[in-house]
Amino acid sequence: MEIDQAIKLAKNNDQKAFNFLLDMFWDDVYGFQLKRTQNENDAEDITIQTFSKAFDKIDTFNEIYTFKTWLISISKNIHIDLLRKEKNSITQVISNDDQEVFEVLDGAPSPEDKLITEQHLAKLLRDIKKLKPHYQEIINLRYFQELSYKEIAQELGEPMNSVKVKLLRAKKLLAEIIRRN
Q: Which residue intervals define the domain RNA polymerase sigma factor 70 region 4 type in the entry (predicted)?
């Protein structure tokens, strides 16, 4: 399959085309992020987010650019956004006259936060049960049992790229269910 052909098929929601593009460009995006983050887990998470966003917005891809360049741009922007969020959530600097005071945010949840979290978790579990069983299983393995992609692939006896694509699809379907409710 040619890249141009795969992009056209992907614009029509062809799963094989998505798999082809993921296989073709995974190493490029992952390698780019690994150099930027110096952390394999962060690089993998950002790469997955990159492909998820790219596949959601594939209709906006302009063929005058190369697909790889488009993916790298998306990946770079996701990383920059994550750095901004991280920077804002870790500390706040408050200047008072000539002294600087660092206020570290308290990460411990309040009793109200705990109750809200429990309610959200119960709702999330109900929404997950609306997915097909194989999507429920992959969500459970990744987010509740906290298995790596490699461990999930071994558990299911499937290639790692298939696991990644299934997880992307499961998250997308779950987000649609949540939006509808």
A: 125-174
Kindly state whether residue 97 falls inside one of the protein's structural domains.
Answer: no
Phi and psi dihedrals of 115, rounded to 5?
Answer: -65, -45
Model confidence, pTM: 0.57
pLDDT of residue 97: 46
Does residue 87 share a domain with residue 35? yes
Q: Does residue 94 have a pLDDT over 50? A: no
Structural domain count of the chain = 2
Distance CA 91, CA 87 (A): 7
- Give 110's Cβ-side CA count (13 Å radius): 2
Its sign, for the CA torsion 64, 67, 69, 75, is positive
Query: What residue numbers bound the domain in which 134 lies?
Result: 107-180
Q: Compute the CA torsion angle 52, 57, 62, 63 (nearest 10 deg).
A: 50
